[in-house]
Amino acid sequence: MPRHALRVHPTFRSFLLHLMLILLMPLPAVAPAASGAAQGTTATSTAAATHILEANPDNYRGKIRQLRPGDHLRLAAGNYPRSLRLHGLKGTAEAPIVISGPESGEPAVLLGRDGENTISLSGTAHLILSHLTLDGRGRNAAGVVLEGNGQPAHHITLEGLIIKNYDATQGHTGITTRAPAWDWTLRNNHIHDVGTGLYLGQPDGSAPFIGGRIENNAIQRTLGYNMQIKHQEVRDPVPGIPTDRRDTIIRHNLFSKVERSRSGDSARPNLLVGHWPPKGPGHHDRYLIYGNLFYENPHERLFQGEGNVALYNNLFFNSHGPGILIMPHNDVPKAIYILQNTVVTAGPGIRILDPHPDHPLQASGNALFSPEPLQVVDAVPTGKNFTAPLEAAEHHLHAPEPRLDHLDLYPHPNRLGREKNTSAIGPLPHLDRDYNHRPRKRPTWGAFDAASTRNPGRAPGIGPPMLQCPNC
Question: For the chain, which residues score pLDDT lower than 70?
Fold first, then answer.
């Protein structure tokens, strides 16, 4: 049987040729999926962006109204005269919305304006704001505000922001949440010359801040608090609000009130954390506060807390007054762990008042240099700490000096050694690392490992990256 040649239409022949060329093209390299962003890295990669928009001071407000999940709005350098109103703006977990300024060179500056919060959030979710400068110019405005209209905001990342000059009064803030907020990340921000740095929650306990991560920030020159997280009453059943136990992590920050602190009735601690809900969801939540530098407060204590608090591997330095106060504020102290801190204070080092008798309380492994190192109730064992007068600090520590650029609380060689670390109390993350976030190899009192003769400095990616401060 004769074989017949196959006749191919010219259009179909052209299609086959193009298909073969496409199949033979080399595929682009695909990066492996990340198992989670490393600390100190930016979350603003455009790899996941489905649409990149460019904006400038003339057209940015119109571009904001166009944003959809996966979009990345890049603001050019320049001064932006009106607020960013981001109400109802929602990305998704897989495709967050990103708004960023230049990572180097001249910044994108959002200017404060009387009667307008510079960045206003409401009903916002899966949003990343990065590399922006917010300049309040002393106006009647706040920096970033989750408005108090009852609409929650969740999965918000504020990273690499400079927030300054919101200092018309002590009540003007850098970052504020006035409605329920959960899964916020505040990272690598420099907040200075503001009334209050971070004010998270409402005074009546009705706007819970849940499961936050606050890391590598520098908060300085505040009139009032560097940071306060308000107490929480029983949580309303808001759609999507977490019901499982959550930890709010506060780590590797600088809290400094050496300058501009108000006195008298307006004096405030560097950091105050309030209690968790008395019952229901959130009742067992915790604050995990580690690897921070609490530096100077001319008129108040450095830290005050109640509820469930783990405070470990921190440095506390106050040449004017007290260090740590655990006491009832709107409720009572409950599960309290104060472990492996170095405390150098002119007032009481650690003071604990009226803790709940049915909850654990442990203060151990600390190195305390103070005229009154420990003021605690009789039920708290205090033998597992190193205590000495304030004057002895210079004999044990490299440079306990009241200048931030000189301060070095790392132990001298052969000082503050102990037989073994005895602070293990269960699953506290990074309890086995020191203030520098380096592994603890040698049993030592206080916040440092002290395996080296000199301070090796912070591990890469640890601490506020914007400061010229080697030990911050």
Answer: 1-49, 379, 381, 422-426
Q: In what order do the strands lie in the sheet with 78-80?
A: 78-80, 108-111, 133-135, 162-166, 190-194, 218-222, 254-256, 293-295, 315-318, 342-345, 367-369, 386-388
Residues 6+ apart with CB under 8 A from 17: none
Q: What is the pLDDT of residue 423?
A: 58
pLDDT on residue 424: 54
- pLDDT score for 419: 85
Do 263 and 224 meet the contact criterion of CB atoms below 8 Å apart? no
pLDDT at 378: 72
The pLDDT score that the predictor gives to residue 96 is 98
Residues pairing with 364 in the sheet? 339
Residue 85: per-residue pLDDT: 96
Q: What is the model's pLDDT at position 468? A: 83
Q: pTM of the prediction?
A: 0.90
- Dihedral angle of Cα 418, 424, 428, 433, to the nearest 10 degrees: 30
Return the pLDDT at 420. Answer: 78
Q: Which residue has the tokens 């030990």?
A: 471
Cβ distance 324 to 303 under 8 Å?
A: yes
